[in-house]
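Supplementary notes for students who missed Thursday's class. We covered one full example, reproduced here. Read the sequence, then the structure, then the short commentary at the end.
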Amino acid sequence: MKLTFDAVVVGAGVLGCSVAHALARNGLDVCVVERGPAPGTGSTSASSAVVRYNYSTWAGVAAAWESKHAWEAWEEHLGTSDDAGMARFLQTGGLQLSQPGQNPEKVLGLFARAGVPCEEWDAGTIRAHMPFLDTGRYYPPRALSDPGFWAEPHGEVSGYWMPDSGFIDDPQLAAHNLAVAAAKAGADLRYRTAVAAIRRRGGRVSGVTLADGTRIGAPVVVNVAGPHSARISEMAGVLDDFTIKTRPLRQEVHEVEAPPGYHTGEPGPLVADLDLGTYFRGTPGGGVLIGGTEPKCDPLQWLDDPDDYQYRATKPVFDAQVLRVARRMPGLRVPEVPRGIAGVYDVADDWIPIYDKTRLDGYYVAIGTSGNQFKNAPVVGLFLAAIIEACESGRNHDTDPVEVTLPRTGHTIDLAHYSRKREINPDSSFSVMG
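Structure (token representation):
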């Protein structure tokens, strides 16, 4: 068994496989170590896999818009096909509903700069296009125990329509596609392989020690370990200069039968409803996938141990999220028995990921990504590859930040936006919306 590589990538979720693919295509000899049994079996498998562009920052919008073009040309982006099949981008369009105090002009300005098509819709336009929706204003979102949960609406919502939004039909297959592409580019992927220690020599990383005692040597290690990322970075001893921290958060996603009129031969549209604190989209099987947007009335389920949590959907969360969507879609029937899954996000303090070097030479991170970065899998590998190439050539990304020009849209992103040493970004939504 080979024990020396140019780079070790810790984690084979959709983003870890993207990083491995990009590094291998750049000519590095890459080893991927993944504690799970296959690519994409952790947080990736629980992703809603939404593709949207309404972020609160330029980097967020530009990265998502670039990624959309890669998802549309997925096989071309990978440079190969996968015998298991190829993940597909299903373009359904997406509606962002307004909430009091929200100024859409900033996002719409970013859309104009990036070239993202968008239409502003008033309540009448929403009803004309989506007669299955109730356009009442219910804000703020309320807990199910709050008597105000059932209050009549006060006013009406408006919103903006993004015709190019949609979702990836199989998030785990997308990770598998990237893993296959990485392997064909020369990467060595090893599963059921947990990291027990980050090795270092002097002020530089020198590889990893696995749980079975195997030592893998490499001058570059990239932590893409999802909700386990903080533990890996603790092993490396690098967290003391991070101003932005990450921690694991349990989340639930539910699926119910779609109401009449929602599907029209194809999966129904994405709706982000901050007025009620939910989002939902259609499924290829004719259902509705439902998640939450972390409204203030819902307690967040932070975890001390990312492996110690309830894997099944729970009735209190199911009822709260699905009943909120039923207020927006009155034709939706709410089952008595919850149907859905729970997963674990790796969440940064401001819900913006960290793509960066660290104070340990050769040790890099792509962390704090869960909840809103699946869609950016096509570009995350590009980001890390650019940072690694620059730093390994002697550039100090902390003082001379790397910029990336995106190949399909031509937009430029300053990767300092994702720095571990940034101040908490006040422009963030501080939720899954990013």
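Commentary. The chain has a mean pLDDT of 96. The longest helix spans residues 377-392. If anything here is unclear, bring it to office hours.
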